[in-house]
Design a protein that fits this description.
With 91 residues, the chain is an all-alpha fold. It has one domain. Helix content is 68%, strand content 0%. It contains three helices and no strands. The longest helix is centred in the N-terminal third of the chain and has 23 residues.
């Protein structure tokens, strides 16, 4: 009985966390016009299966450190003089 209640509580928490994640995403992050309402309906009516499908399909967030490294790399390339081809072979 305790295991069933624990699984029920865990599934409710999982569904709510996925629904909150969905609602925090902007409409412009979805390719289609009705993608966000469709995912909301899938999570509400499909409960655990809908939330699991959303969890599998949602884009993964990049770690903050790699995002900052990419922006630093992009700014370093923009600052590079036009004549430098990147090759340091002096022979």
């Amino acid at each position: 009985m305790i295991i069933v209640v624990g699984l029920l509580v865990a599934s409710v928490i999982f569904c709510l966390s996925q629904f909150i994640h969905l609602m925090r995403r902007g409409d412009d992050e979805f390719p289609g016009r009705f993608d966000k309402p469709i995912w909301a309906a899938a999570i509400i009516f499909g409960t655990v299966l809908g939330a699991f499908a959303y969890w599998l399909s949602k884009p993964r967030e990049a770690p903050e450190s790699s995002a900052s490294l990419e922006s630093e790399f992009a700014s370093a390339i923009k600052k590079r003089p036009a004549g430098s081809g990147g090759s340091t072979n002096a022979g």
